[in-house]
Amino acid sequence: MLVKLDDTRKTQTPLRSSGVIGADIRALRVSRGWTLSDLAEALDRSVGWLSQVERDVSEPALADIRRIAGIFDLPVSFFFSDSPDTAEAAYIVRADSRRLMTDDSKGLVEGLLSPDL
């Protein structure tokens, strides 16, 4: 019996460009002072696999991303949120990304609105 595949299926586009999840995992690992071995052991994965994920040679399965998020106490959505638009970043600094300058003696808080100051 032959089965015809449905060619009308739409392919899903990734929420983030390739290379971002691996870089995020590496940044989280390094920020905690962990080695590849430390995180690989916590994930019950090999050091080689984790290295490939961080270098975007391999993509982690959703189950792996869930485990990584759990280890770092983050929501899974952290790895799939949109990254800032690079064209916009040259002109706009969003409220949660502003560099703050404070003067505690006056109770004053100022935020830089321009990305190039």
Q: In summary, what is this structure?
A:
The chain has helices at 20-31, 36-43, 47-54, 62-71, 86-89, and strands at 100-103, 108-111. With 117 residues, it is mainly α. It has two domains: 20-79, lambda repressor-like DNA-binding domains (434 Repressor (Amino-terminal Domain)); 84-117, no CATH class.
Report on this model:
- Mean pLDDT is 77; it is low at 1-17.
- The chain has two domains: 20-79, lambda repressor-like DNA-binding domains (434 Repressor (Amino-terminal Domain), Orthogonal Bundle); 84-117, no CATH class.
- With 117 residues, it is mainly alpha-helical.
- Strands 1-2 form a two-stranded antiparallel ribbon.
- The chain has helices at 20-31, 36-43, 47-54, 62-71, 86-89; strands spanning 100-103, 108-111.
Main sheet: strand order:
1-2
CATH architecture of the largest domain: Orthogonal Bundle
Overall pLDDT level: 77
Which regions contain 5 or more consecutive residues with pLDDT less than 50? 1-17
Structural class: mainly alpha
Q: What value does the Rg take, in angstroms? A: 20 Å
- State the CATH class of the largest domain: Mainly Alpha
Distance between the termini: 68 Å
The number of helical segments is 5
Q: What sort of overall outline do the alpha carbons produce when their principal axes are compared?
A: elongated
Estimated helix fraction: 25-40%
Domains (count): 2
CATH overall fold name of the largest domain = 434 Repressor (Amino-terminal Domain)
**How is the biggest beta sheet arranged?**
2 strands, antiparallel
